[in-house]
Amino acid sequence: MKAINTFNQALENNISNFCFYGEDTFYLDLIFENFKNLLSHRIDDTETIRLNAEKVDFQLIYDELNTLPFFGEKKLVIIENLLDMTAKNKNFLTDQEKKTFINYLKNPNQTTILVLLINGNIDKRKKFTKELLKNISEVKAEIVDAKEIYEYLAKLNQSSQILSEKQLQLVIELSNDQLELAVTHFKKLRALSETESITDELIYKNQIKDLAQNLFDLSKYLITEQTDAAFSLFYDLMKVAKPGELIKINGILISQFRFFLSLKILMAQGKSNEQIANELKGINTKPINANRIRFASREIKRVSESFLVKVQRLLIETDFQMKSGSQDNQLLFETLMLKIINLKK
User: Do residues 62 and 161 both lie within one domain?
Assistant: First the structure.
């Protein structure tokens, strides 16, 4: 995996300052655990100090960086939430403290390994961030492609060999190229393998779905007029939904039906799935999962372009009503689902 290779190479080159960051918190935790495991033979828990930049004074951070280890040759200092590096309009360090920190990085304590650990992205436009990155190894927790996920799952699968190569690929495809979903799915299948034979059918049956995939199913039920299934899934989602999440759910559906409409238009032009994926990638800037196109194309064959346009309008109207706070959001969404089903009829 790219991020793991980055810090492996940096450690081999005796680099001792690191910045781990990324929006994928599962992957961020995973690669950081790999990093700590790699250091475990050199640094034990007694020589690991974890500090929250939001809660401690800079002087404490600075003192820890310059203090010698008590027992071993090296110590690990982890600084979390240095939001001065992010786009958030928060500053915990004064200008003088920032200068002091940058000067430390230029000439660091050789017995200290420093890690800045940030949940989220950093703002590389900020002068402070630019200066820090000149003297630090940047490790971004970001999955570049499905190949990285496959390599990680293949390592998990190595000892037990419960899945074939094709089945590993199937797990990744069903995860919509999301590492956390793929790993959770794999671990569930590994537990099942103790009592059951792992078949493709079993893999499909035990798919772990995120919100977007559940909403794809909801879209399918609405398009195919499966009223009971649509409302059942909706109420299941509401059991775990956070306050205000209906606006997010409606927003995801707007994106999904926009995707359906684009797909319908491109299919009508006689384009192949590969051509459609390339065109939609240009619009969305991110690669489109081939399975997403294949599954969606089956469903939208049943509906017309005009139907998809009307659904899009209903969704946008509902989004406006939700944000205006004029009515109860759940009631608005239930009404929306009935309108979509009645449109089809």
Answer: no
Query: Has residue 294 got a pLDDT over 80?
Result: no
* pLDDT category of residue 172 using cuts at 50, 70 and 90: confident
Q: Which two tokens stand for residue 224?
A: 């195919």
Domain that holds residue 176: 146-205
Residue with tokens 């436009």: 125
Nearest to 183 by CA among 217, 212, 215, 157: 157
- Could you count the other beta carbons within 10 Å of the beta carbon of residue 81? 20
Query: What is the value of pTM for the model shown?
Result: 0.69
CB 234 within 8 A of CB 218: yes
On the CB side of 192, how many CA atoms lie within 13 Å of its CA?
A: 16
Residues 240 and 196 in one domain: no
Residues 129, 156 within the same domain: no
Per-residue pLDDT tens over the stretch 32-84: 998 888 888 878 778 899 999 989 999 999 999 999 888 778 899 999 999 89
Structure-token pair, residue 280: 């939609």
Whether residues 64 and 192 share a domain: the answer is no
H/E run at residue 39: helix 25-39
Of 117, 140, 163, which residue sits at a domain end? 140
Mean pLDDT (the chain, rounded): 87
227 CB burial (10 A radius; 0-12, 13-18, 19+): middle
d(CA 298, CA 17): 51
Quick: pLDDT tens for 238-257: 987 877 889 999 999 999 99
Whether residue 249 is found in the same domain as residue 322: yes
| Whether 11 and 136 share a structural domain | yes
* Burial class of residue 24, CB neighbours in 10 A (0-12, 13-18, 19+): middle
CA distance linking residue 7 with residue 138, whole number of Å: 8
Count of structural domains within the chain: 3
Beta bridge pairs of residue 120: 22
pLDDT score for 285:
47
